[in-house]
Amino acid sequence: MSAKTVIILGALSGIAEATARVHAARGDRLVLVARHPERLAVLQTDLVARGASRCETIVLDLASEPAPDRRLAEMIGQAGGNLDVAYVFYGVLGDQHADERDLAAARSAMQVNFLSAAVWCLAVANVIESQNSGVLIAISSVAGDRGRQSNYIYGAAKAGLTTLVEGIAHRLAKGKARALAIRMGFVDTPMTAHVEKKGALWSKPDGIAQKLVALADRPRGVKPYLPWIWRPIMSIIRFVPPAIFHRTKL
Amino acid sequence: MTGYWTRLDYNSWGRTISVPHEVASPRFPDEIAGLLSDNSGHTTLPVGLRRSYGDSNLNPNERLIDMTGLDRLIEFDRSTGILRCEAGISLHQLNQILVPSGWFMPTTPGTRFVTLGGAIANDVHGKNHHSAGSIGCAVRALTLARSDGTLQPIRSGDPLFLATLGGMGLTGVIVDAEIQLSRIGSAWLENERIAFSSVGDFFKLAHESTAFEHTVAWIDCAAQGPKLGRGVFQRANWCNDGEYAAPKKGAEPSLPLDFPQWALNRHSIRVFNNFYNWMQTRGSAVRREHYQPFFYPLDSLRNWNRMYGAAGFYQYQCVIPTEAAKEAVTRLLQTISASGQGSFLAVLKTLGGKSSGGMLSFPMEGATMALDFANRGAKTLHLMAQLDVIVAQADGRLYPAKDGRMPARMFRAGYPLWREFATFKDPKIQSSFWERVSKS
C-alpha cells in the first residue's frame, strides 16, 4: 500500500495519538492539528521515530476557527498532495450536572462538540467530494443514541454530529469518497480517567485505533460501532419503553 | 483530565494488598511538575505497569502517578543504537520498534510488560547479567522531576543518578531516559537445554557456560530426597541469520478469573513440576527459539498471577554471594521442599560481577533464586522468615521489587548504602515498602 496523507483534527486525544501511531508505523504522511504547541512537538518526534514519512504540526484552536475551508486547504498543501483520510477527533466530555446550571458552559460544550466539528466535517466533505476520493472519519459516541440523564448535553451534540456525517455519507455515495461517524463506546483515555473502576465494557485505545485505521482503509458499514458490542447494547437501550427507562439512573 | 482520581484497581502483581489510591494518569511531560508539587499534604509515587510483586509500587490511601501515558520515542539513532524515550514506554512496545531494526534492550527481565522507567527504578537484570550487568549499566542519562519543581538532566555517574538506579521511584519521577541498545543479528536465539540432577551440577554447568550470552535454570522445588536440586539449564546466544520477522500467531490467552485456593496444593504443584520437567527435556536439546517465548515464557498467559487465587501470592527472590551460594541454595531448597509450599516455577541463575553502581541495586556476584508462594497467611510468612535466616547467614539479600514483607533489619543488612540513599529521597514521594523498611 502506498503512503497516505492523513489529517488528524484534535491530534492530542488518547485515541487520536494511538491512531496516528498505526499510520506512522506504515510510513504514512501525517498532519497533526491541536492547540498545544509543545505537546504537538512531543508527538511529532515520536511519530517520525516510529516511521511516519512526514509529520507536520499545526497549532490551531479548532473550535473557534472562523474559516475551516481555507485552513483545510492550507493543511493539504502543507502535506503535499491529495487528502486520503481526515479524522475529526476532538471533543469535550463536559460535566453534565454542572452544565445544567451553567448555561454558558453548556453552550460552549455544544459549540465544540457539534457546531465546530460539523463545520470541519463539511469542509472535509467538499474536498473529498471534488477529489472523488478520500475518507472522512468523525468520532461520535454511543451517548448520541438515546438521551440519558447522566450525559445528554454531550449526547445531543454527538447525535447531531452523527446525523450530519450520515448525511454527508449519503451525499457522497454516488462517488468514491466516503464518510463515517463512529459511535464509540467506553474507552480508557484521559477523558475518562476519573472513572473509578473499569469493567469489561472498557476498551484500550490501541485496539480501537487498529479498527479505526481498518475502517479508513475500507470504509464500510452504515452505522459503525466501536467496539461492536455496543451495537446490541444500544439497540436494547433504545427500545426500552420510557416508563421503564425513566426509572433507571443510566 | 489530569488530576488525581480515586481508583480501586491499582494493586501490585502479587495482589496480597488491595487498597484505594488517588491516581493521576498524565500523558505529557509538562503535566508532571504540577502533580508532584501541589500543596495537598499528600505523598505520591510514580508507577509503571505495576509488575513489582509486593508493596514497592503501592502508596495506600495516598497518591500514585501512573506513568504509562508517557510512552513516546524522543530520539532513536538506528546507526549507533542510542535511544532516548519517555519513561512510561513498555519493553513490549520498545521490542516491536527495536527488533525489526536490529537492536534490542541491553538486558530484559522475565516480562516485557514493564516500563522503561520501572526497569531503571528497579535496576532490573536478565538472563545475560553475567555478561551485560543490570539495565543501569546501559543507561546514559535520565531526566528527573522532583517535588521542588526542578526538572533536571542527570548523567551516568552522578550521585543522584546512582540513587535513582534501583531507587524504586523514590528519588523523583523519571520522565525520560537515554540508553545504549545492543545489536542483534536476528530475532531468534539458539537455545540449548541440559537437564541436571543436583545443585552442584547446576553450578558446574553455569561455570562451563559463561561464554553463552544468556543462561538461566528452572529448578524443581517440589523434588525431595535424591531428586532434590534437579532442574533444566538453558544457555543461548542470538542467531545471526538476519531474520527479524515474528512468527504469526493469534491473540494471547488471558486468565479470566482467580483460581480457587484448593486448586494449588502440594500434589498439583508436584504434578506440574513433573510435567514441566518432561516438557523441557523432551525433543532435541538445541532449539531455535524466537526471543519472545525465550525471554518471556510467562507473558504468553496474561494475568497469570490470578493462578494463585484471590488471596494473591508472594515472590521470594534472593541473591547469595558466590562462596556461600551452593550450600545456601541447597538449604533453601530443603526448607521449601519440606514445607510443601513450593511453587510452579523456581528460577536459578548466576550473576556476574559487573555493577551499575546503583545504591539500592539488587544484583551482586553470586547466584539468585526466585520462587512464588501462594499466600496462605501466617504459614507462608513463617516459611519466608526461615528462608531469611539462611539468606542472612550467607550475607545475601532480597530483591525489593519482589518483596512485600521483608523485615527492616533484613533490608538494611542487605543494602548498607540505604542511609546514603535516604538523603536523595524526594520528601514528597513515598511507598509502602519504604515506609516499612526505613522507619524503626
Please describe the topology of this protein.
The complex is a heterodimer of chains A (250) and B (440).
Chain A: E1 5-9, H1 14-25, E2 29-34, H2 37-49, E3 54-59, H3 68-79, E4 85-88, H4 96-101, H5 103-131, E5 135-141, H6 152-172, E6 178-184, H7 205-217, E7 225-226, H8 230-239, H9 242-245
Parallel strand pairs in A: 1-2, 1-4, 2-3, 4-5, 5-6, 6-7
Helix pairs in contact in A: 1-7, 3-5, 5-6
Chain B: E1 5-7, E2 21-24, H1 32-36, E3 46-47, E4 63-66, E5 73-77, E6 82-86, H2 91-98, E7 103-104, H3 116-121, H4 129-132, E8 139-145, E9 151-155, H5 159-164, E10 173-180, E11 182-183, E12 188-196, H6 199-208, E13 214-219, E14 231-238, H7 266-281, E15 286-290, H8 291-295, E16 313-321, H9 322-339, E17 346-351, E18 366-374, H10 378-393, E19 397-398, H11 408-414, H12 418-422, H13 432-438
Parallel strand pairs in B: 2-4, 3-4
Antiparallel strand pairs in B: 1-2, 5-6, 6-10, 7-11, 8-9, 8-10, 12-14, 12-15, 13-14, 13-17, 16-18, 16-19, 17-18
Name some characteristics of this structure.
heterodimer; A: 250 residues; alpha/beta; Rossmann fold; 9 helices; 48% helix; 15% strand; B: 440 residues; alpha+beta; Uridine Diphospho-n-acetylenolpyruvylglucosamine Reductase, domain 3; 19 strands; 26% helix
Textual characterization of the structure:
The complex is a heterodimer of chains A (250) and B (440). By secondary structure, chain A is an alpha/beta fold. Chain A has one domain: Rossmann fold, CATH 3.40.50. Chain A is built from nine helices and seven strands, in the order E-H-E-H-E-H-E-H-H-E-H-E-H-E-H-H. Chain A has helices spanning 14-25, 37-49, 68-79, 96-101, 103-131, 152-172, 205-217, 230-239, 242-245, and strands at 5-9, 29-34, 54-59, 85-88, 135-141, 178-184, 225-226. In chain A, helix 6 links the parallel strand 5 and strand 6 (178-184). The radius of gyration of chain A is 18 Å and the shape is globular. Chain B is of the alpha+beta class and 440 residues long. Chain B folds into two domains: 70-184, Uridine Diphospho-n-acetylenolpyruvylglucosamine Reductase, domain 3, CATH 3.30.465; 188-414, Alpha-Beta Plaits. Chain B has 13 helices and 19 strands. In chain B, the strands form four sheets. Chain B has an eight-stranded antiparallel sheet with strand order 15-12-14-13-17-18-16-19. A five-stranded antiparallel sheet of chain B has the order 5-6-10-8-9. In chain B, strands 1-2-4-3 form a four-stranded mixed sheet, with no helix packed on it. The radius of gyration of chain B is 21 Å and the shape is globular. Chain B starts with a strand and ends with a helix. The A-B interface holds A 14, 17, 38-39, 42-43, 45-46, 49-50, 190-191, 193-198 and B 1-3, 5-9, 23-25, 27-30, 69, 72-76, 97. Chain B: Pfam families: FAD_binding_4 (PF01565). Chain B: Residues 16-184 form the FAD-binding PCMH-type domain. Chain B: This is FAD-binding protein.
